[in-house]
Every structure is written in structure tokens, then in C-alpha cells.
Amino acid sequence: MPYQYSRRIRTEEKKNIRKARLFIFLTILLLALFFVFGIPSIAKFAAFLTEIRRTNTKIEVSDNTPPPPPRFEPLPEFTKEDKVEISGQTEAGAIVKLFVNNKEAEVIANNQGHFNYTFTLNDRENTLQAKSVDQAGNESSDSDKITVFLDKDAPTLTINKPEDGSQFYGANEHQIVIEGASEEDAAVNINSRMVVVENDGSFSLYTTLSEGENSFSIKTRDKAGNETEKTLKVTFNP
Asked: Could you list the residue ranges that cross the membrane (predicted)?
């Protein structure tokens, strides 16, 4: 019995030794695999994480460049309307500061840089100027100054000759000249026929009369669009 017990112990010891050797071998193998493949993989993974952090990091760039001054679409130099709509272009999202008759107003340009604003005119001269402020707070230089005149007065119109109701006779008076005066730079039409207006506002038109009553519609229109109309009637007897 003691001999069998001792033999069993030696057998178990041999099994334990083999297990220990196998464990040591596997441990060494795993460590070798870790150092051969694990460290480069860890390094690559760490580099990958660093790149992700770098990509997600917000890069702040200092913007010290002022935007260009606003550009206005053409406005009438003269108008008879009480209100005028301003529209123009500047940097997208910029604040447009408008200075109308020394009063300030602000509008924000849309994503395409377009802006518009309606303002009420004072009688006679009105001045408009603007500047832009971008989202970084940079301010542009002043835009060109624009002047708009509000004129609601009808232009003057005088018919110097012939007198209304005049009568003409015979071949020598078959042709007459209509003479008159209006404002400088006004547009004059007689029976829808354009007439040349001189620098002093005077105008004249030679015309041939028809037998009987002849009616002439004389219209003058100023730069603001105001109109004055008069009718001249004369009679011709051959």
C-alpha cells in the first residue's frame, strides 16, 4: 500500500510538472505574440485616436479682413413717391448699417448677401450711405453717397403763342409755330410728338393746320414723373 501511494504521488507530480511547463510555454508564446503584434497594433490604434481628436478639434482662424462696402442697385435721382426701396449686395450674413438723412437703420444680408430696406423720403434732397459689419466684427469703409430728390410739384407749362381760340386764314397761315416754356430738363410732347426743350426750358414746334378746328394736347413731364397738360385749340379757314 505505501508503495502504491508513493507511486500515485509521483504520477501526479509528473502531471503537474507537465501542466506547469505547458503553462509557462503558453505564457511565453502569448507574451511573444503580444510584443510582436500587440505593440504595433496599440501604436496604430493610439495614432488613430489622435487623428480623430485632431479632426474633431475646432480650428479657430482669426478674421481681420473687413468686408467690402455695400453696393446699391440703381436708385432714381428724382422721384415723386414718398417711399423708396433700397436693395443691394454685400458679404453674406453681414449687418448693413444704413445712414439715411443722418438717421441710422440696420438690416442683415441673407445667405446670398442680398439686402433691402424701405425708407421714407424728406421733401427735396435725401442722402443715403452705408457700411457693412461682418460676423467677426470687422467694419467696411463707407459706400458711395447717393442723393435722391423728392419732388411732388407739377412742372410749369406756358403756351406763348398762338393764343387759345386763334383763327388762321389762307395759304400764308396754313403753317403755324407753337411756342412755349416749361422747366429745364423737362420732356415736352405735343399730340404725342416729342419736342426739343432748350436749356432755358423753351420749346417750339412747326405744324401744318387742317381745315376747321385743330386741337393740340401739350404735356410736360419732369424728372420725378410729375406731369402738367394743357390743350390749345385753333381754327383754320383756307
From this structure: 21-43
Q: In total, how many domains does the chain have?
A: 3
Indicate which CATH number applies to the domain containing 104: 2.60.40.10
Classify residue 4: in a domain, yes or no.
yes
Of 150, 171, 196, the one marking the end of a domain is 150
Q: What is the pLDDT of residues 8-49, one digit of tens each?
A: 556 666 667 776 676 676 667 556 655 655 555 545 544 544
- Reduce the DSSP state of residue 63 to 3 states and report it: coil
| Strand runs labelled E in the chain | 71-72, 78-79, 83-89, 95-100, 103-108, 114-120, 124-133, 146-150, 157-161, 167-169, 175-182, 187-190, 193-195, 202-208, 212-221, 227-237
Note whether 59 and 133 are within 8 A (CB).
no
Q: Describe the strand order of the beta sheet including 124-133 as a list of residue ranges.
A: 78-79, 146-150, 124-133, 95-100, 103-108
Task: Report the predicted TM-score, pTM, of the whole model to 2 decimal places.
Answer: 0.62
- CB neighbours of 197 closer than 8 A, spacing ≥ 6? 182, 184, 185, 186, 187, 188, 203
Q: Which one, of 17, 32, 128, 120, lies nearest residue 75 by Cα? A: 128
Q: How far apart are CA 162 and CA 169, in angstroms?
A: 14
> What cell numbers appear for 171 in the block?
395759304
Please give the residue range of the domain that contains residue 135: 71-150
8 part of a folded domain = yes
